[in-house]
Design goal:
Elements: H1 5-8, E1 10-16, E2 30-32, E3 36-42, E4 48-54, E5 60-62, E6 66-67, E7 72-78, E8 86-94, E9 98-107, E10 121-132, E11 139-149, E12 154-166, E13 172-183, E14 188-197, E15 205-217, E16 225-233, E17 241-249, E18 257-267, E19 273-281, E20 290-295, E21 309-318
Parallel strand pairs: 2-9
Antiparallel strand pairs: 1-3, 3-7, 4-5, 4-6, 4-8, 8-9, 10-11, 11-14, 12-13, 12-15, 16-17, 17-20, 18-19, 18-21
Length: 321
């Protein structure tokens, strides 16, 4: 692309509100959670163009790649319901050199309802490790996500996750959806899992969309504790992690814990997320007792030299009579 293309490149951003095109500050346009915004660009030729928005908490929303038609390319995007309030930065790239940037101010939704507002669950961090399979041109990705219920007074229930695995061009290599029954008020839930991909193309980032299905007043939720947790290398190839083992103690509830799903996020020495996985406890655990758990799902894609510590979140079930 000629360098002079940058001089021909202009960008117009129009925040589309539910009430129509109301006048806004032309210097820093206002966009609202849950509503749509339009990004358009005029370019010379038909280079591939990609737009992205980075919100105040550092999370990024990407568009798909488009090519200009008659000198113009545009996208209509929806501002996530849980987008961070504050300044968001957008940028558009067309070809190797043409780039334009700007800012929005993200505001709360203008919608009103009769009941209490749903709690907002934000992604506090995510990370992953990818390992190619030996045969078939496929790969697996072990990943972890920290989810924070930002409400101090309401539990988030039926939290739906849509996780996209994105390559360097912005193309999606795979998508996973999951539902988490509960993220407690003002609590962080560590979600770890694994995704199988039908390609060995490198994943460069995760796109995570969070939708809260319901909310309820904050309540006490007994949680087991963990001790003597170990990251175990693969006995056949010690350069990769095999499993995460440890002890689980039912020391905060008077009732027997009948089962528990464990979600495990693996961190490197600096606290960055490098992957995650799962474990299940299916044997009854009486109050005041402990037992061994074995986490053997999802960790095989993590290099052993990057795995330093873990964070575990539990979804326990207790005897009710």
């Amino acid at each position: 692309m000629p360098r002079t293309l940058a001089a021909l490149f202009t960008l117009a951003v129009l925040a589309m509100t539910a009430a129509g095109a109301a006048a806004r500050d032309v210097t820093v346009p206002v966009v609202h959670r849950g509503q749509t915004a339009r990004i358009s660009a005029r370019v010379s030729g038909t280079p591939p163009c990609l737009a992205s928005v980075q919100y105040a908490d550092g999370l990024t929303q990407n568009t798909g790649i488009k090519h200009a038609i008659l000198g113009k390319v545009s996208w209509t995007i929806r501002i996530p319901n849980n987008a961070a309030i504050g300044t968001a930065h957008w940028n558009v790239r067309c070809g190797p050199s043409a780039k334009s940037t700007g800012t929005w101010r993200v505001a709360r939704s203008t919608a009103s309802g009769g009941g209490p507002a749903l709690p907002v669950v934000m992604v506090q961090g995510n990370g992953f490790s990818q390992r190619p399979d030996k045969f078939g041109g496929t790969s697996k990705v072990s990943f972890g996500i920290f989810l924070k219920d930002t409400s101090p007074t309401r539990d988030a229930e039926n939290v739906y996750l849509l996780i996209n695995f994105v390559d360097a061009t912005g193309e999606l290599l795979g998508t996973m959806t999951k539902s988490i029954p509960l993220v407690g008020a003002d609590q962080v839930f560590a979600y770890g899992d694994e995704m199988s991909l039908r390609t060995q193309a490198l994943v460069t980032k995760l796109e995570v969309t969070v939708k809260v299905g319901d909310g309820s007043p904050a309540a006490a939720h007994p949680q087991p504790h963990f001790a003597n947790v170990r990251i175990v290398p693969d006995s056949h190839d010690p350069s990769w992690v095999s499993e995460v083992d440890g002890e689980i103690a039912n020391d905060t509830a008077q009732a027997t814990m009948t089962s528990a799903q464990l979600s495990i996020v693996v961190l490197d020495a600096s606290g960055g997320i490098v992957g995650g996985g799962k474990a299940n406890v299916n044997s009854p655990l009486p109050s005041g007792s402990r037992m061994v758990f074995l986490g053997q799902s999802g960790f095989g894609d993590i290099p052993t030299n990057k795995a330093a510590s873990v964070v575990i979140s539990a979804q326990p079930q207790y005897q009710t009579n």
